[in-house]
Amino acid sequence: MSKKYDFSGWATRYNIHCSDGRTILPGAFDDCDGKTVPLVWNHQHDEPENVLGNAVLEHHDEGVKAYCTFNGTEAGKLAKEIVQHGDITALSIYANKLKQQAVSSTAANVIHGAIREVSLVLASANPGAYIDSESVMAHSDDDGEVAIIYSGDESGFNFLEHSAEKKEEEKSEPESPKESKKEEKKMDEEKTVEEVFEDIEKKLTPEEMNVVYAIIGQAAEGGLDEDDDDEEDDEEEGNMKHNVFDQDEVAGQDYLAHSDEVEIVNLAKKTGSFKDALNYYAEDNGFIAHGEQAVPVGGFSQDPQVPGNVSWMFPEYHDVNANRPPEMITDDWTWQEKVINKCHKLPFSRVRTNYVDIRHIDELRAKGYPRKGAYKTYSGNFTAARRTTDPQTVYVKNALHRDDIVDITDFNYVDYLYKIDQQMLKNEIATAILFGDGRSDESEDKIQEDKIRPIWTDDDLYTMKGVLDLAAAKAELNGSDTSKHFGDNYVLAEAFMMKILYMREKFKGSGTPDLYCTPHMLNVMLFARDLNGRRIYSSIEEIRSALNVNSIITIEQMEDKQRVDATTGKKYKLDAILVNLQDYAIGSTKGGQISHFTQFDIDFNQEKSLIETRLSGALTKVWSAIVIEEEVKSSQGNS
User: Fold this and answer.
1) Are 56 and 36 in contact (CB under 8 A)?
2) Which of 67-81, 93-107, 112-126, 469-483 is predicted most confidently?
């Protein structure tokens, strides 16, 4: 080498068994011939001061020699003095893009790679490293002597970093052979990539061709032409300048660039099998673990848990709601807020109502005095109706593990779970007010129906119950020839309408009530048609006006709610509730309002949360609610 340098040595030697079980075979780094790489101290990549100079690589049959020149920095001058004094006698290399062949479970042969740096180290991991005093070469104006340093190899994960005092714990993966750059350029002069691909295509199976087409499709996003072979070195050098001190990026890549397809094709030319070439390349770049296949027999793997799955070739997914909490899949919750807001609030929790039943006042009439001296009889007794309702605590308790709170950074995990807990509490209270919580009487978690009294099953003195008789309604509307007249929707809608309006005659609630019904019942009324096929009600507003209600509120959770009459044993399905919730009182004292408590449990590393309220609830006016039901026949089951 004619260029002056400060010292030279063997960057690595071939056919030397390393302490990690790897052996670098002859020609493994022949592509590095003539390259200039950084000279650093002990593989330190953290600070620019660790760059001591550069090394020009020269490939030989025995290994790769490094002709090293120090820079003019203070660190470079100090390192030069240390080397000339003989204090440092070992070199080490850092290499990636390795191709390996497994010899055993603990040994492998490195057959190809790319040297990214040469490093001065305190000791070599290879027993063959030594200073050859007979191979001293002139390198400076004063013709002094410089030791020529030999070095062995120490490996890391998908790269080599050969110093005895710095070993990587990760295990390397065996990888495939790669053709030298000289042979690659020679073949490129003889044939174009397209011609080579046509030759290989004739040798591939249909499954292997599917792999080729998939990779080319992926490469099309970045562009691929016949000049990519010439551009490959430039791209690697550009990547080198960006990542020379980034160990993780240099160690491996998890994508396919347009230059990678050329490399795979070149490997296929040498091995004779595109499938083997793809598997070698996938191993090298961390797509699969050693011993697995990137291309399973029979085509791509469809199992998302299996490495080499076809989906790995697709672009990365992006969350449409990035940095926002996940959207909740829920039933309609709007009715719950309306129910709670419409109820009358009391500043006390123990509620009592007093009434005197004089419904049969006609039997308690005043009497005329028949004659002098006649006995005057009593008019009769009145019935007093009194009801008391006590409060009950309703709560939602949860615990969040602190590890999850710390690890989830895309959104506020604590606030997100708290909002869900709030909604759970509101949902339970609103459900208990209208229908009851649905748990069995034996359940310890049941919201007792004498604490928060459900309107649906309340005493007949407060809730009037009407049962639809569809058979009678059909006979009344259509006469004897029912099949040629009104449809089922019209019959059900009219039966529903008539039952509500007739029961409104006895309604004693405040103001104008609201109608709470199932979405299906509302649709039945909207789809009701007359004998000419025209809809009876063209809008919800027309239905509201016909029923003389304040508003119509649909509740999905009302679907398929059934009860069994304790007296008759008959089963009834709920269709609608008519009530002005100003007649339903929610009582709560100071301190019983909705409150939130948190506490950290150091024993279990959990943030515990409790939301609770203590309240009572009941209708406070007699005949203030109307319930419309259908009797469930035995043949209908639970429908």
Assistant:
1) yes
2) 67-81
Q: Between residues 378 and 581, which one has the greater pLDDT?
A: 581
The single residue listed with the structure tokens 């003019």 is 72
What's the CA gap between 627 and 521, in Å, rounded? 14
Q: Is the dihedral of CA 168, 174, 175, 181 positive or negative?
A: positive
- At 154 the pLDDT is 37
Q: Are 288 and 307 in contact (CB under 8 A)?
A: yes
Residue indicated by tokens 């009219």: 494
Instruction: Find out whether 576 and 628 touch, Cβ atoms under 8 Å.
Output: yes
Q: Quick one: pLDDT at residue 190?
A: 54
How far does Cα 224 stand from its chain's mean position? 35
**Range list of H helices, 63-173:** 74-85
- State the average pLDDT over residues 430-445: 91
Question: Taking the C-alpha atoms of 520, 525, 527 and 529 in order, what is their torsion angle to the nearest 10 degrees?
Answer: 150
Q: Which domains does the chain have, with CATH numbers?
A: 1-175 (no CATH), 180-317 (no CATH), 463-587+622-636 (3.30.2320.10)
Looking at residue 296, its amino acid is P
What backbone torsions phi and psi does residue 406 show, to the nearest 5 degrees?
Answer: -75, -40
Question: Residue 396 burial (CB < 10 Å; 0-12/13-18/19+)?
Answer: buried
* The pLDDT of residue 145 is above 70: no
Cα 462–Cα 463–Cα 467 angle in degrees, nearest 5: 155
Q: What mean pLDDT comes out for the span 594-614? A: 89
HSE-CB for 628 with a 13 A CA cutoff:
25
- The three-state secondary structure class of 240 is helix
What local confidence, expressed as pLDDT, does residue 315 receive? 63
Which residue blocks in 205-289 are alpha helix, DSSP H? 206-219, 228-243, 247-251, 258-271, 274-284
CA 416 to chain centre: 15
Highest mean pLDDT range out of 157-171, 236-250, 327-341? 327-341
Q: Comparing C-alpha atoms, which of 514, 346, 334 is closest to residue 426?
A: 334
What residues pair up with 607 in beta bridges, in sequence order?
Answer: 400, 600
- Is residue 9 within 8 Å of residue 69, measured between CB atoms? no
Q: Which H or E element spans position 161?
A: strand 159-161
**38-52, 63-77, 264-278, 345-359, range with the lowest pLDDT:** 264-278
Question: Is the confidence at residue 377, as pLDDT, over 50?
Answer: yes
CA-based angle 569:575:576, to the nearest 5?
115
Residue 530: CB atoms within 10 A of its CB come to 12
